[in-house]
Amino acid sequence: MTRHFPHDWQSANVSRIPYPLYTDEDVYRRELEAIFYGPHWSYVGLSCEISGPGDYKETSIGERSVIMVRDPDGSINVVENHCAHRGVKFCQERFGTVKSFICPYHQWNYNLKGDLTGLPFRRGFKGQGGMPADFDTKQHGLTKLHVAEHNGVVFATFSADTPPLLDYIGPKILEWFERTFDGRELTLLGYSRQRIPGNWKLMQENIKDPYHPGLLHTWFVTFGLWRADQSSRMIMDEHGRHAAMVSAKNAGGGGEVTQNVSSFKADMALNDDRMLDIVPEEWWKGPTVVMTTIFPSLILQQQVNSVSTRQIQPRGPGKFDFVWTHFGFKDDTPEMTRRRLRQANLFGPAGFVSADDGEVIEFSQQGFEQDPANETYAELGGTDVADTEHMVTETLIRGMYGYYRKVMDL
Amino acid sequence: MIDPSVRFAIEQLYAAYTSALDNGRFDDWPDFFIEDGRYVLIPRENHDRGLPLATMSLESRGMMKDRVYGVINTLFHAPYYQRHILGPMRIEEDGDALLVEANYVVFRTKRNEMSEVFNTGRYIDRIVNTDDGLRFAEKLCVFDSEMIPNSIIYPI
Q1: End-to-end CA distance of chain A
Q2: Which residues make Cβ contacts (< 8 Å) with residue B16, sequence separation at least 6?
Q3: pLDDT tens, A319-330?
Q4: Does B46 sit within 8 Å of A190, measured CB to CB?
Q5: How close does chain B come to A323, measured CA to CA in Å?
Q6: The CATH number of A42-148 is which of 3.20.20.220, 2.60.20.10, 2.30.110.10, 2.102.10.10?
Q7: Which chain B residue lies closest to A327 (C-alpha atoms)?
Q8: How far apart are CA A186 and CA A316, in angstroms?
């Protein structure tokens, strides 16, 4: 085994994670290659974001800018955003509608599949100059990614070795994916973007950590939305890389689980309770909260009536961009749309129960950077990796690091 | 032509508003609004495309009080100062209401750190006269800042 970072992963288990895994530049470069540009599907967007022919969206996989575009034939292409000629990142807008991609520098022209269709002075001018006689446009297209869409959610991968999307997600997690995305038409509500000064893995960990919501997110506890004793399930795919935290809120109030929680305050009420005007929807089939992590870049949120995708775009070992896409469903009533938008106050960069996630991730990163010889301790519920029927566990974090260790060969 | 006394009263309102926010008097914040006043903090991207999602969207003084409760009692965050700088106000009359548009920059200063541009954009506000003086019926903060530097805790 090669030493990829200045700290050997000595522990036999994956419940102790060395701090340099969050801070080291070499580790990070290897993650980009092995994970983001390797045999994994990364989220690029929702099909409803590019509904018409030529509609495109610019986004990132790892640090590489890519363009998701609706082909005239109705399919979705994903191409890398740099010209085959001199490397120009030709698309500088995030959304738009085009007939073709044209690089502004020398006007190389590509169709929406990424094939080079034309370039000026290919045959020179008055017999002088021009491209070599054997110039083959087929050899000079844009980098084309493999694309898979499932029920309105679009993924792409640079690697030809990535298994088919549904196999990649796996049957256990697909069940929860399809609970939200069952083929219904989606409607776009809007975006939130934040840059979080922490390692990208911390956001995956955050949504694989059912220990913290009832403690950090005082708001949840204060207003009865989350308690450690509510019925919960922690579910992983066979590799431990994806997970679903499934939970149903119960009646609330005091009792054993709130005794040691300093944040719990009985009898707190909102001045305007429209913020928590929760109306159960048939498709929930019971659970009020399902948070799904699809390794490496995607989090799917259903928190009562608020649904969103959250995309992780790493920007170096110490920071990542976090992009929220809130949506609804075509058959939502205006009241339901308003409800989803109101409950969106709980989530995002200013959210009552999300702003503090970004903050603690920043503090974690600060701790890692100051003491590289140390390691984290994730042994709530033991050191093993297994699904549970409760939330007093860090099993999902261990599951992810078990997979991570294999992929990274650490 | 807006009466200079009206302009002066509006400037006083904004000065009092930013003073309350920049000096941490958050309990005073809802009182700058009428009872069913609206406060919306929204990325320019969503605003320009007609997408309704806002970073913060509050529809009453009650919701604003709930936000203040969250800011003070439940939201865990690194402490910071914020400082608003406002540009000249464009004022129009609309019946009994006043429409005001003004550019703003908010600087953030965290402990042991340099001051940084935190959020910049424009206010698009609707102001009405009440028995207690001028109050916001609607305050729309449309921000250019493409990336929120981690989080926004306090109102803008």
Answers
A1: 7
A2: B32
A3: 999 999 999 999
A4: yes
A5: 9
A6: 2.102.10.10
A7: B53
A8: 33
